[in-house]
Amino acid sequence: MKRLLFVDNLRIFLTALVVLHHLSLTYGAPGSWYYNETEAGLPEIVPMILFVASNQSFFMGMFFLISAFFMVPSLERKGTSRFLKERLLRLGIPMLVFYFLISPLTIFLLVKFIRGEQTSFFQFMAESRGQNIGPMWFVLALLLFSLIYLLMQRFRSPEQQRRPLPLPGVVPVLLFALLTGIGQYLIRIRLPVGWSMPLTNFQFPFFLQYILWFIIGVVAWRNQWMTAITPRMGWRWFALAQIMIFVGMPLLLFLGNIFETGTEPVAGGGTWQSLGYAVWEQITGISLMIGLFGIFQRRFNRQGKLLEHLSASAYTVYIIHPLVLVALCLLIRDLSMNPLLKFMVAAPFALAACFLTAWVIRRLPLAKKIL
């Protein structure tokens, strides 16, 4: 299989967005994170809402799509036994390291330097405090989805041939987005945005999208949909996404009276605001995905040494970024400035620190085989 460099570059972009998304939560964007330093008010909270809502609409779904897309040829090339062994190694070990080391160390920094507890890290660990799966819920979900796919393959005939499916047009895509949005709206009546499953940290209010995009990733590989998205198609969908972000979301915030009532009405409970947000989220997300695939395929389908190193380090960045972000934010916590400005100042340093730390970690013995 020819390496799709534009998809590698997309993974760098998505990983950077994850880092910046969580950094913005530190400085006042709505959402929970290890360290919330301040609560942004008007007007700086508006661009923060646009940023985190736009990210949430697509980036994790796109991760599942890309992961499933490359899972299929990997399984076909390696066979079930080798594929499963490597999957457990690459996903399972980092998840355990995060749960038993990275997450406790991240929380220890907050306990030590924010709460001021007089305790050592070894004492903290001995008390079994700080174990949390955090953003590694994605890795756990990906492992579960992969195992379910392997199980389903046992019931699929090797000789079974299916007619290739053409890339869906505009109307089917928008209908899919609408139905997914309605589905997530119905889930959020009982499980509003912000709810997560204990231990796994699975956020079921968003999970319908993740499941569907994992399935689409498999279908996309079998029908070569990624390379069928043209740059012209990409720009048109990307333009629609910008309209949804900079016109649709402000309208929802204004008409839904969100700045007076807070974000609770859009989170769930059967409100019209929740329905509007759920549908907005899916139309925006699918528009961004198609748009980015088309644009990156035309503009970013090459790699030099720097992008090659960044691509190789992206998974490690995802694993270690909570610890790096919390440490960096604690270092500059006494820097007094507007939350939005502080986010913008910290952003390049956060990205550089995460990717540089990941590059160093991947130089350690055995790390490269796993990461």
Secondary-structure content class: mainly alpha
Give the mean pLDDT.
Answer: 93
- Please state the oligomeric state of the protein chains shown: single chain
The biggest sheet, with number of strands, parallel, antiparallel or mixed sense and barrel status, is: none
Count helical runs. 14
Number of strands: 0
Series of secondary-structure elements, N-terminal to C-terminal? HHHHHHHHHHHHHH
- What's the Cα radius of gyration? 21 Å
In terms of DSSP E residues, the strand content is under 5%
Shape: globular
Helix content: over 70%
Given as residue ranges, the uncertain stretches (5+ residues, pLDDT < 50) are none
Distance between the termini: 21 Å
Structure description:
There is one protein chain. The protein has 14 helices and no strands. It has helices at residues 5-26, 45-78, 80-113, 121-126, 137-153, 170-190, 204-223, 231-255, 258-261, 264-267, 272-299, 305-331, 339-361, 367-370.
